[in-house]
Specification:
Length: 130
Amino acid sequence: MCFFLQILYAFHFTTNHPENLVKHTEGIIDKLSKKGYTLSRVRNTWLDDSNPYKGINTNLITPIGYEFELQFHTPESFAVKNGAMHELYEKQRELNPIKDADKIQQIDKEMFELSRSLKRPKDVEIIGED
């Protein structure tokens, strides 16, 4: 991982909302924009069927130029992300892509099964990719 990404992930925050993820996301981004923060990236993996991780990840730049990541989740997607999905991800990271291809594929399958258990938030397609 490059030095910039290591620093970026040192400033990483997560929020979740039980009722309306889209309004919550838009509201926080709007409030931060009014305080001088700039949205530099949006990644909505709820729209990405090739990714088992489900959330809205944003990068914002502070008024003095520091960039950080802010993730938006439902309580359920947050629990999966921080629980079983994270454990599987950590196991997978340690595997050799050539020697352990079968194990990697099995872990992928397990992560997608977890992902399928999540209810897609209402109107989540409004939050698009940049």
